[in-house]
């Protein structure tokens, strides 16, 4: 095998040298050309150590075939290497693109987290403000309940009416405070009516019935200017007086007094207020 490889590598070089020598020589006739070829063959035989011309030619052809196969193999390898280099370059570009996209996604993620964190802080701030407002409202409600309870005690209001209606004696809460305020309003109206009736006794006897009726109903100029609005009473007595349009004629002063006294005496507040006035 080593001899074949050596002969395959030397034979082409010897042949090329001989051909180059033949080109340099100036051949004038066919005999000179034949002599030159014979000289070249002798040199090849001397180098190769073989006198068989056919064997030398076969070796030369085989060497050329091997060289051509090697040349094609090298070209294929070069082409494949070039293809691999292109693939590597494309993969590197894709990796760079993926890294850039990854960085962009990370930045978007961080930006989203910052936005969520800001929203969380804002929600916490709003929740804290609402809790403070709720605490303030709760304190105000507690003060209102204490004030309403104090008013009910000072005005000696009958709480059983509200307790029976609510079905509970738990006291004043956020849910029933309006009922107790209605009771306070009702009691206030009764006391104002009694106060107005007592004050009417000091008025002149020759006062007109219409003016006296307005005074007894609390429709004085000073009160009208205040433009007060009072909610309807939570509980009204069935025996309280009511002015209707059925009577065409105006009430007399005595009739107005009897009508008001009828509504006031039913509550018992008049007797308490009269007793207090007598004590003074």
From TrEMBL:
<feature type="domain" description="ODAD1 central coiled coil region">
    <location>
        <begin position="23"/>
        <end position="168"/>
    </location>
</feature>
<protein>
    <submittedName>
        <fullName>Coiled-coil domain containing 114</fullName>
    </submittedName>
</protein>
<feature type="coiled-coil region">
    <location>
        <begin position="74"/>
        <end position="147"/>
    </location>
</feature>
<keyword id="KW-0175">Coiled coil</keyword>
<dbReference type="InterPro" id="IPR049258">
    <property type="entry name" value="ODAD1_CC"/>
</dbReference>
<dbReference type="InterPro" id="IPR051876">
    <property type="entry name" value="ODA-DC/CCD"/>
</dbReference>
<dbReference type="GO" id="GO:0036158">
    <property type="term" value="P:outer dynein arm assembly"/>
</dbReference>
<dbReference type="GO" id="GO:0003341">
    <property type="term" value="P:cilium movement"/>
</dbReference>
<dbReference type="GO" id="GO:0005930">
    <property type="term" value="C:axoneme"/>
</dbReference>
<dbReference type="Pfam" id="PF21773">
    <property type="entry name" value="ODAD1_CC"/>
</dbReference>
């Amino acid at each position: 095998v080593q001899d074949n490889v050596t002969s395959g590598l030397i034979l082409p070089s010897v042949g090329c040298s001989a051909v180059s020598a033949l080109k340099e020589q100036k051949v004038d006739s066919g005999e000179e050309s034949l002599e030159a070829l014979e000289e070249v063959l002798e040199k090849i035989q001397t180098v190769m150590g073989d006198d068989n011309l056919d064997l030398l030619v076969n070796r030369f052809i085989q060497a050329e075939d091997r060289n051509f196969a090697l040349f094609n193999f090298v070209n294929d390898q070069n082409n494949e290497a070039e293809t691999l280099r292109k693939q590597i370059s494309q993969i590197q570009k894709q990796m760079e693109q993926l890294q850039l996209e990854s960085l962009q996604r990370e930045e978007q993620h961080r930006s989203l987290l910052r936005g969520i964190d800001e929203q969380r802080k804002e929600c916490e701030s709003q929740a804290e403000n609402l809790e403070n407002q709720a605490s303030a409202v709760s304190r105000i409600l507690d003060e209102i309940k204490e004030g309403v309870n104090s008013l009910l005690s000072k005005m000696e209001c009958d709480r059983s009416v509200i307790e029976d209606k609510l079905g509970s004696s738990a006291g004043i809460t956020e849910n029933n405070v309006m009922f107790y305020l209605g009771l306070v309003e009702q009691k206030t109206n009764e006391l104002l009516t009694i106060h107005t009736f007592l004050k009417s006794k000091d008025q002149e006897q020759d006062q007109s019935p219409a003016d006296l009726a307005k005074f007894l109903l609390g429709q004085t100029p000073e009160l009208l200017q205040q433009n007060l609005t009072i909610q309807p009473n939570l509980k009204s007595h069935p025996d309280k007086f009511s002015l209707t349009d059925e009577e065409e004629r105006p009430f007399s002063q005595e009739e107005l007094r009897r009508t008001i006294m009828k509504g006031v005496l039913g509550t018992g507040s008049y007797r308490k207020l009269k007793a207090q006035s007598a004590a003074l």
